[in-house]
Amino acid sequence: MSDAPALVVENLSLAIGPAGLVDGVGFQVAPGEVMAIVGESGCGKSVTAQAIMRLLPDAIRQTGGRILLGGRDISAIPERAMRAVRGQLMSMIFQEPQAALDPLTTVGSQIAEALRQPLGRVRGEVLRMLRDVGISDPERRIDQHPFELSGGMCQRIMIASALISRPAVLIADEPTTALDVTIQAQILDLLRRLAIERQTAVVLITHDMGVVADIADRVAVMYAGRIAEAGPTAEIFAAPRHPYTALLLASIPRLSDVPKSKLAVIEGRVPSPSEYGPGCRFASRCPRADARCAAETPPLRPLGDGRLTACFHAEAMA
Amino acid sequence: MNTLEITGLKVHFPGRGGAPVRAVDGVSLSIAPGETLGLVGESGCGKSTVSNATVGLLSPTEGSVKVLGTELAGASRETLRAIRAKAQMVFQDPVTSLNPRMTIGEAVGEPLLVRGLARGAALREQVGALLEEVGLRADHASRYPHQFSGGQRQRIVIARALALRPALLVCDEPVSALDVSVRAQILNLLVELQARHGMSTLFVSHDLAVVRHVCDRVAVMYLGRIVELAPRDELYSEPRHPYTKALLAAVPEPDPVTQRAKPRVPLEGEIPSPANPPPGCRFHTRCPLAIDRCRVEEPAWRPVGAAMVACHLV
């Protein structure tokens, strides 16, 4: 993973009307690496993914920053050129595979479409891809429609169609949230294996710290449109240095905790974009907040162990 | 007397192709006073159907559901109405559980008002006390649901469920629609209320870590049946049924060190349709240990140590 990054997001800012949604988000992903963006509803993780794919709803504008794919800034290229990027250099899979697949087209034709070829010409390649994503009996499945398949199988089809053109980057937006745990485990194993085998850089959008712990090499924790903390998954989980990360981790019931014991609670609620003040957006809920936190935005700064933390009190958290 | 006693419960629905969908197909369980029983399983296993039958929202095709000794199967409307006062339900989605045109005071006070238990100043006082009990303020009573966050709305739903001081609380995925940090608040509240009032709880969830956190005993369902029922610590430290083992192995734990060292129990394939369950043990099509006997002979429901298990190989 010492190669040049496949994807670099620099200082990305997004806004809806006058309200900022995402503020200065940046990260990079190397080939074969899984980078998770984790956070609660409204933190900006999904719009960040949409911005990378240039699939933002009309009301949301990119107000700053660059998105470099293989070194080229794609954030301002014309939509025509972007169409060649999507599906070829960069693909996306979604939470609801059944909704994302075309109900009237056979599975095989949908996967072939990603190669911009009729199925007849690439049938062998599609069958190989189906086998590679763990579809049993691919000879039969290739001619079936999405409604004939379970949710887990549809997600495998989505992954097949996203990866068959060997894109450099895969954006996976909550890819296992709609699936049962035993199926989720299968899909996560599959994503990890394919990322390594095909050297795909994966951006995984999720709310689930368990999913992050399972497959992410690195993680960025987002809160209210900003990155609170980012770095290697092992370091962040072992010793969170942002109070939000620490509280979030402590609030999750674990198989190892004391049953019925009190879980850590984050008081209050996430501010909406119109309520963002000049300081740290977590300050109103933070047990460590002081006057400076309310007045001044803490910069996302390196702490020397490969991580970045946006908190004035990061040293005291150690 | 047990608060809840379910014996041989079957709930079948008419199927599209003629064969009935056997959503629940022979479930027996009981909940003692003050006890919390967790019911876990994946989508389509029948756990929500069991919880709906428990509060009389669905009538059993066969079998018996008794709340505080009173039979719900075939009960008259008056009996069902009386039982619903004793068995209250909290659903997954707090947004659709509340009428947007009712103030939360009206919503929480409604069970007391319609049963003629309180009105006027006495009602307002009780509603205020209920709101405070779930961590809201008495003066919130005049506001509408849209003025509250998801977590606060689930508190309101819980306050309404508590209004009649039920003996049994049925919670169907009560925290699944909530963000992680809010989930912790609601779980803390449920544990606290349970300790204070000593009510029995049927806690339905797909999340094994959440169930472990709040429950005393746990039943694992697969395709309309319970495959294992055991005291919490027993079930989590020594799962016996291969499905329980696979479920536990599949829970992604929020700790990269434990999670990555965990042995994988890969379950092949998908859950079969409840309209056409496999013969023999229903889990045999996905079970890594299945032998010929599992494909033809239904395993008996029998005690093994402190647990009850349905598996030939345990």
Read across the widest sheet of chain B, the strand sequence of neighbours is 6-7-8-3-9-10-12-11
Shape assignment of chain A:
globular
Uncertain residue segments of chain B: none
Our measurement of the CA-to-CA distance between the termini of chain A, rounded to an integer number of angstroms, reads: 28 Å
Helix residue percentage of chain A:
25-40%
Q: Give me the number of helical elements of chain A.
A: 13
Give the quaternary arrangement of the chains: heterodimer
Largest interface between protein chains, with number of residues from each side: A-B, 46 and 45 residues
Biggest pleated sheet of chain B: 8 strands, mixed
Largest sheet of chain A: 8 strands, mixed
**Mean pLDDT rating of chain A:** 94
Helix- and strand-based class of chain A?
Answer: alpha/beta
Tell me the span between the first and last alpha carbons of chain B.
31 Å
* Low-confidence region ranges of chain A: none
What fraction of residues of chain A sit in β-strands?
A: 15-25%
Structural classification of chain B: alpha/beta
Output mean pLDDT of chain B: 94
Number of E-type strands of chain A: 12
Radius of gyration of chain A: 20 Å
Describe the protein:
The complex is a heterodimer of chains A (318) and B (314). In chain A, helix 4 (107-113) crosses helix 5, helix 5 packs across helix 7 (151-163) and helix 7 (151-163) packs parallel to helix 8. The longest helix of chain A has 18 residues, at 181-198. The model of chain A has no long low-confidence stretch (mean pLDDT 94). In chain A, 48% of the residues are buried. In chain A, 33% of the residues lie in helices and 22% in strands. Chain A has an 8-stranded mixed beta sheet, with helices on both faces. Chain A has 318 residues and is of the alpha/beta class. In chain B, strand 4 and strand 5 (70-71) form a beta hairpin. The two termini of chain B are 31 Å apart. The model of chain B has no long low-confidence stretch (mean pLDDT 94). Helix content of chain B is 34%, strand content 22%. With 314 residues, chain B is an alpha/beta fold. Chain B contains 11 helices and 12 strands. In chain B, the strands form 2 sheets. Chain B has an 8-stranded mixed beta sheet with strand order 6-7-8-3-9-10-12-11, with helices on both faces. In chain B, strands 2-1-4-5 form a 4-stranded antiparallel beta sheet, with helices on one face. Chains A and B meet through helix 8, helix 9, helix 10 and helix 11 of A and helix 6, helix 7, helix 9 and helix 10 of B.
